[in-house]
Amino acid sequence: MNCTRRLSFLKAAFIALTAVTLSANNADAQSKGKWVTLFDGKSLNGWHSWQSDKVLPQWKIEDNAIVLSEKGGKDLVTDKEYGDFELELEWKIAEGGNSGIIYHVIEDKKYCCPYSTGPEIQVLDDVKHPDSKAGKNGNHKSGSLYDMIPANDFNAVKPAGEWNKARIVIKGGKGESWLNGKKVVDFPTQGAEWEKLVADSKFKTWEGFGAASKGKIALQDHGDKVSFRNIRIKEL
């Protein structure tokens, strides 16, 4: 190939690559700010069990809800990663049950589970599960940033067996946990304040915990029956 033809070829390749990149960036930009359904009540497309290529059978669909019927399904994880986002869903925990919603999860073989890297918003039967009395100042109760910041209103949660509406917002280095229409936790997600929270928690020696600014969302298999429905997300 002579120099002129080679230059023409390289120029054409560069233009094509630029077009593909711009198209991808435009698609990402268009997706931001729009609600996207993560569960339509019928299919578990877009989800998989932790470090698996499928959803394990312990996770079922019942009455338009995702239900962990028994232990062994592993945490249910989104296929896609999210950075800044607003997540809304409803959850219902069985009597005496424990679960959680975990964000910025890094799915890597060197980690045992989603909570190795992702901070958790607690899902719990605050009345009958013993974890409700663990931690500091109630930071293991429902809606809390688990083991870090307690919910500011322990009465915001509804009893086991009833649906609760959760909203989690992560944006610009800050986070919010909402429960049944009330903001129950404000928290940093990076910087010196975040590092202090981690240092004062059970996660202080955990390599990679809370370090990522982007990751997957997980619904926890803690061995107890738990249900999730009306799940949607908006990238910010």
UniProtKB/TrEMBL annotation:
- What Pfam families does UniProt report for this protein, alphabetically? 3keto-disac_hyd
Q: Which domain of life is it from?
A: Bacteria
- Name any one GO molecular function: hydrolase activity
Alphabetically sorted, this entry's keywords are: Signal
Q: Where is the signal peptide?
A: 1-29
Say yes or no: keyword 4Fe-4S present: no
Reply yes or no: does the keyword Protein transport apply.
no
Q: Which residues form the 3-keto-alpha-glucoside-1,2-lyase/3-keto-2-hydroxy-glucal hydratase domain?
A: 34-234
What name does the UniProt record give this protein?
A: DUF1080 domain-containing protein
Native organism is Dyadobacter sediminis
